Amino acid sequence: MEHVVLPAWALLAYLAAGVLFILALRGLSSPATSRRGNRYGMIGMAMAVATTMATQAPIPPGHWWPRPSPEDLVILAKILIAIGLGAVIGITTARKIQMTAMPQLVAAFHSLVGLAAVLVGLAAYLNPAVFGILLPSGAISPDSRIELGLGIAIGAITFSGSVIAFAKLNGNMSGAPIMLPARHVINLGTLVAILGLVAWFTQDESLWVIAAITVLSFAIGFLLIIPIGGADMPVVVSMLNSYSGWAAAAMGFTLHNTAMIITGALVGSSGAILSYIMCKAMNRSFLSVIAGGFGTDAGAAGGEAREQRPWKRGSAEDAAFLLKEAENVIIIPGYGMAVAQAQHVLREMGDLLRKEGVGVKYAIHPVAGRMPGHMNVLLAEANVPYDDVFELEDIQGEFAQCDVASSSARTTW
Amino acid sequence: MDFISILSIFVMACFVGYYVVWSVTPALHTPLMAVTNAISSVIIVGALVAAAGRSDTGIHALASSWLGLAAVTMASINIFGGFAVTARMLAMYKKKQKG
Fold this sequence. Notes:
The complex is a heterodimer. Chain A folds into two domains: 8-58 and 67-290, no CATH class; 317-407, TPP-binding domain (Rossmann fold, 3-Layer(aba) Sandwich). Chain A contains 17 helices and four strands. Chain A has helices at residues 8-27, 31-55, 70-96, 102-126, 128-131, 142-170, 183-201, 207-225, 233-255, 258-281, 286-291, 294-305, 316-325, 335-339, 343-355, 374-381, 392-395; strands at residues 328-332, 359-364, 389-391, 404-407. Chain A has a four-stranded parallel beta sheet with strand order 3-2-1-4. In chain A, strand 2 (359-364), helix 16 (374-381) and strand 3 (389-391) form a beta-alpha-beta unit. In chain A, helix 1 (8-27) packs antiparallel against helix 2 (31-55), helix 6 (142-170) packs antiparallel against helix 7 (183-201) and helix 7 (183-201) packs antiparallel against helix 8 (207-225). Chain B is an all-alpha fold. Helix content of chain B is 73%, strand content 0%. In chain B, helix 2 (29-39) packs antiparallel against helix 4 and helix 3 (44-51) runs antiparallel to helix 4. The longest helix of chain B has 33 residues, at 59-91. Classes of the chains: A mainly alpha, B mainly alpha. At the A-B interface, helix 1, helix 2, helix 3, helix 4 and helix 5 of A face helix 1, helix 2, helix 3 and helix 4 of B.
């Protein structure tokens, strides 16, 4: 059987959805355009879903007229229930979640994309005819097998990795790295085995091959993330973001769907760039974070080696006096502020200082908080105007001119 | 579409992604992750196709359609949750009067 031939309008609609997703990310280049961008994303998604519903599912072309069969209507009802259930769960969670808990929410969402990719891959393997990847001989076409194998593997890694990341961020699991002996050998061996099985899958489409790929990939996602310490989670969450994109892209190759391929590429690059930015900000190489555990070793060693400089303890009154007498104050918030939910009090303090004629600015280190840009969201939540919030590179020169740089961040500049 | 056309779209989209993402202001990196998460749920397209598969052709087809339905639910959680939480965050970035 050939690939399902879609009408030209459907192909154009998928392409348009892909373009809308690009515009959604483009909108995030400034807070002013960002909300419009988010709407583009929603429209793109609605278009992709509607096009699929109208052309391939739940009712295939030709079944709409003269009238859909009862079986078709049952399928339609099931699908609508599934979407409705997802909508209720998704929207309630999004409304309730605290801004400090954003990293674990994103990790949980990543795990869902990963698992969905695995399920779609397995579904395509079990019923290749509906995906149009069945050859006349009755076998699944070899290139589709590679795409399915890779899609399932990446999806499974995304799923189990995100579950661990969620547990560590949410405190269900200690943030301390868990070191297995010979973990590099085990990880490398598992990865090689997965790739070998994907190659083998092109020759032999037995169930055990795809089952083994799935199980080993779940295992490697788990093994890769448990040795990574809590402080490195921003990198891990970004990396899993990237993986969820590649998984979607792999499924897009199977379905020959432009919307999925464009999205996969966008999300894949986005996560990769964010991981790079995070690593650079921590002066770490990506490999050392992913190889795991290096963070804690290096941190401990750094602490001892650091030169002991003289310091003085001051009271809150002293600090208040210093701040009031200063002309320019730069506040560098750290994660401790977020944990203490002190962003609102901090903003009130900033307002008081401003009334005294003191210039107040906020400087944000890229890895302040537990995911990229987390601190900016927390400050925005406390109504700090975003014009007063600066990134590391933009404000670095101003430290020489400021009178007080107040930092609760443990990261050094 | 043949494999090469699809691969071309993919490679071009990677470049577009690279440049678009670098243009995102660091202040919005958390909303960026939330929204990329929502759009990566476009995998729902595959889930819908699987869920709508005729299940009268045997146990494999039946299993396939249920896996599809489960995937539709997960992807929907992500789509609605992802866009809603992004909208909530972005609303906090609205231009405010300085106090």
